[in-house]
């Protein structure tokens, strides 16, 4: 009987280990697929939008915003091959600093992109008009702040509180044992969720009023199309950024119970989902093509925001 019990326990352990391995393999495969899609689609979108901007030679406020998003997406896309290498080979081969930099880039990209989305949405909601020099000045200030302050500070502290194996990367969950890191994460989650919820409510209200005002020929009015474009940015935020932040709260509260690192992989999947926002450029190109075929609307990168 004792031998039979030991045999059953051993079989159960093997079965649970096999299940965990299969689950991890599926999550790794999902990560690879997501990053390949984002790398291919994002690169195509950046190239096509850059060509579109070069042909139109527009100098509007929207063009400056789009160029900033293009640069952000380009930096993030350059980091994806390093992530793919790690998930395909199962080993990090580029050193500890490159690991921290690659990991930090995805967060810098996410929050910088969100900041530009919010700026575009607010400018359209309030119908703000900016001179080009003012727009260039504040966009340049944002870039300088990010390059000279945020990025150095992040790289100075991110992933440095504990010693990690050189063959592993993107496993900085040990940082969550520090109270200030937990507080910072909760603050970022709270800010994004609140801002997104408020802007979504306001944007839906504005679109409803504009739709009722111009119904039924709403697509022929510039005001409705402008607000619809703003709603697109909100939808990107809801689809790409919100799931990661909602799961982040659960992950922070339960990471210490994550003995088989399954939650860590789920967190990586939600983080990979945030990079799908780089596909927005393909949507912009599709909008431009649709508008040119209809001959009924101004360019997405045309005058005004």
UniProtKB/TrEMBL annotation:
Membrane recorded as keyword: yes
Domain G-protein coupled receptors family 1 profile: 41-284
Membrane topology: Multi-pass membrane protein
Subcellular location: Membrane
The entry's keywords: G-protein coupled receptor, Membrane, Receptor, Transducer, Transmembrane, Transmembrane helix
Keyword Membrane assigned: yes
Pfam families named in the record: 7tm_1
GO cellular component assignments: membrane
Gene Ontology MF: a single term: oxysterol binding
Transmembrane region(s): 27-49, 61-84, 104-126, 133-158, 183-210, 231-250, 270-289
SUPFAM superfamilies the UniProt entry points to: Family A G protein-coupled receptor-like
Name this protein carries in UniProt: G-protein coupled receptors family 1 profile domain-containing protein
Organism the protein comes from: Taeniopygia guttata (Zebra finch)
Organismal lineage: Eukaryota, Metazoa, Chordata, Craniata, Vertebrata
């Amino acid at each position: 009987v004792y031998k039979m019990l030991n045999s059953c326990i051993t079989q159960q352990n093997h079965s649970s280990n096999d299940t965990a391995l299969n689950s991890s393999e599926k999550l790794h495969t999902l990560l690879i697929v997501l990053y390949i899609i984002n790398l291919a689609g994002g690169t195509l979108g950046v190239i096509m939008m850059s060509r579109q901007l070069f042909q139109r030679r527009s100098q509007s406020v929207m063009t400056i915003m789009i160029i900033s998003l293009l640069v952000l997406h380009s930096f993030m896309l350059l980091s994806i091959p390093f992530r793919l290498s790690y998930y395909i080979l199962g080993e990090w081969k580029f050193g500890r600093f490159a690991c921290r930099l690659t990991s930090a880039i995805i967060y810098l990209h996410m929050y910088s992109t969100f900041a530009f989305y919010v700026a575009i949405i607010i400018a359209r909601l309030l119908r703000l008009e900016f001179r080009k020099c003012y727009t260039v000045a504040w966009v340049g200030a944002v870039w300088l702040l990010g390059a000279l302050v945020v990025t150095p500070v992040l790289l100075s502290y991110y992933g440095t509180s504990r010693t990690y194996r050189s063959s592993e990367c993107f496993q900085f969950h040990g940082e969550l044992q520090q109270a200030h890191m937990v507080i910072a994460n909760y603050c970022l989650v709270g800010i994004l969720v609140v801002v997104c919820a408020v802007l979504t409510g306001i944007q839906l209200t504005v679109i409803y009023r504009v739709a009722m005002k111009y119904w039924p020929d709403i697509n022929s009015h510039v005001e409705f199309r402008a607000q619809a474009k703003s709603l697109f940015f909100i939808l990107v935020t809801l689809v790409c950024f919100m799931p990661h932040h909602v799961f982040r709260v659960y992950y922070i509260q339960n990471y210490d119970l994550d003995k088989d690192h399954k939650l860590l992989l789920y967190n990586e999947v939600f983080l990979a989902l945030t990079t799908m926002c780089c596909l927005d450029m393909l949507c912009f190109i599709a909008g431009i093509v649709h508008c040119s075929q209809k001959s009924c609307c101004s360019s997405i990168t045309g005058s005004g925001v």
